[in-house]
Give the backbone structure.
Amino acid sequence: MAEKVLMKGNEAIAEAAIQAGCRHYFGYPITPQTELAAYMAKRMPKIGGVFLQAESEIAAINMVYGVAGTGKRVMTSSSSPGISLKQEGISYIAGADLPALIINVQRGGPGLGGIQPSQSDYFQATKGGGHGDYHLIVLAPASVQEMADLTVKGFDLSEKYRVPAMLLADGTMGQMMEPVELSEVTPEPHDKSWAVTGTMGKRKHNIINSLYLNPEKLEQKNYERYERYAQIEKNECMWEEFLMEDAQFCVVAFGIAARVSKNAVIAARKEGIKVGMIRPITLWPFPEKVLAKAAETCKAFLSVELSMGQMIEDVKLSIDCKRPVRLCNRTGGMIPSPDQVLDSIRQMAKEVE
Amino acid sequence: MSAMAKRITIFAGHYGSGKTNLAVNYALHLRRAGEAVKIADLDIVNPYFRTKDSARELEEAGIPLISPAFANSNVDLPALPQEIYGLVQQRDFKVILDVGGDDRGAYALGRYVPYILEENDYEMIFVTNFYRPLTTTPEDALEVMREIEDACKIRFTAIANNSNLGNLTTAQNVEATREKAQTLSRLSGLPILMTSAQQEVARNLSCDNIFPMILQEKYYDIKE
C-alpha cells in the first residue's frame, strides 16, 4: 500500500505484524498497550487470522509457545506487570529454541506501578528476565515508523536465529501518533524443518521441548545456543549515530529518551558544546563496539534513561569504565525534559576535562 | 459557524480522529465569539490525550472543564462526574461534549441522550480523519458512524473532515480527502459542517467552511 497513514504506535505494531504475515495473536489487555490488542481483534477475523484474548498473561504466552512450535509467526503484547507474568513462558520458548515476538509497551514500576511511560524493564528485557541462561533479541524503537519496521525485523531475526525477540517500547511510543508508511513484506524464507506440523508418516517426528533429564545434553544445548548468540552479537547490532563525527561528549539514549535527548543535543551544539548521541536500536545485542570507539575520542558519556539507571551499566561495560559515565534520568512514569538533559550536558562539559 | 451554534455540540468519531483537539478549539472559538461555554470530557476509554491536557488554555479563556475525577492520573477508572447532568439540563450556556472514540467510547454518551433529545437543540458532529488506517475509505468511516449511533442511540447531524497526518500535514494532504468527505456526505445524507486543520495548513486550503486550529506542542516532537 505504501501510502502514509496516521497511526498510534500500538496500532503500527499490530498492522506491521499483520503485513509481516503474523496470523496468530494471543494477549490480555493492559494499559498502555491495549490498542494493539483492540486493533488485532478488529483486523484478524477479517483476514482469517486468530485473535484470542486469553484468561491471563500466563495463558497467552503459553499459547504463543504452542503456535511457535508449529513454525507459524506468532506474537503477544503486554506492558510491564504483564510481561513479568509471561517470564516463565518466555524462558520455555527460549529453551525450546523457538521464534516468537513479544511486545513490551513499558509503564512505570515496580509492582503495579502506574500507566505512564517508563524504561525500567531494561534489565528484565536484556539480561534474561526469566530463569536460565538465555537472551532475547531486544529492539528499541524511537518513532511510530520504527515501531512498524522493527516489528517486521523482530519476526525476521527471531526466525533466522530461532531466538525469541522482544520489542521494548514505552507508553509514549505506544500512544503517540505519527505518519507511517506500511508495505506488505514477503517474509524471508528460513528453515522450518524443526516445526511440529504433522509427519504424514513420512519422517521421524520433531520434538519441541525445554526439558533435559541428562545434564550433559542440557549443557551442550546451552553451548550451542550461545554460539548462535555470538553470531547475533557479531551480525545484528543496530544503532544510530547523531552528530558524533567531532563529538567530545556522548549522550547515550534509546526510545523516547533518545527523542528528548536529540533536542537537547541540538540545543547544546548551538551553545558550542561538541556533543553527539549514540542511540542503541538493538539493546541486546548492545552496540558495544561503537561505544568503545567513541570512548577513544569522547571525554565523558551521559546515559539518559526513564529508570533509576539500568542501561548505564552496559555503557560502562562497553567502554571498560575508561571515561566518566553520568546519568540523567526520571522514573516512575516521568520523562526528562529537553532542558533537564541540556543542563546535564552543560554540567558534564563544564566539569569533565 | 458560531452564529448558528446549537446549544449542545457533540464531537464523536473514530478513535484517534482528533475529536478532543477539535472540541477544545471549537470551545475556544465560541468563547471568542462571546458565548458562555462549558466543555465536558466524556472519554472513559482512553486515559491519554484528553481534554484535560488543555486545562490551562480553557481556564484562561474562561471555559469551565468538567472531566472525570481521575483524568490524567494513574487511576484508570471509567466513571463520569455527576456535574455532566447539569450541563445537559441547565440551558443558559453553550455546551461542548467531547465523546470517547468508537462505539465503545460512545456508550457513555447514551445516558445523557434523553435530555439532549428532549431539548432538541444540538449538533452531533462525526469527526473523521481519512488518514487513520481503519477509516481510509468513506465506506469504513460510515461503518464507524453507524456503530457509534447504535451505541449511544442518537444520530449524527453533520461531518467534520479532520483529515491529517499529524505535524507533517500539508494542505495537499487535506485537499486530497475532499472527495472522500463528499462521498461520506452523500452516503450518510449529512452536510460537511467544516474542514478542520492546523492554522498554518488551513491558510492554504481552498474548500468551504475551513476551521483553523491551534495544536498542542509535544515534548517529543523533534525540532531540527
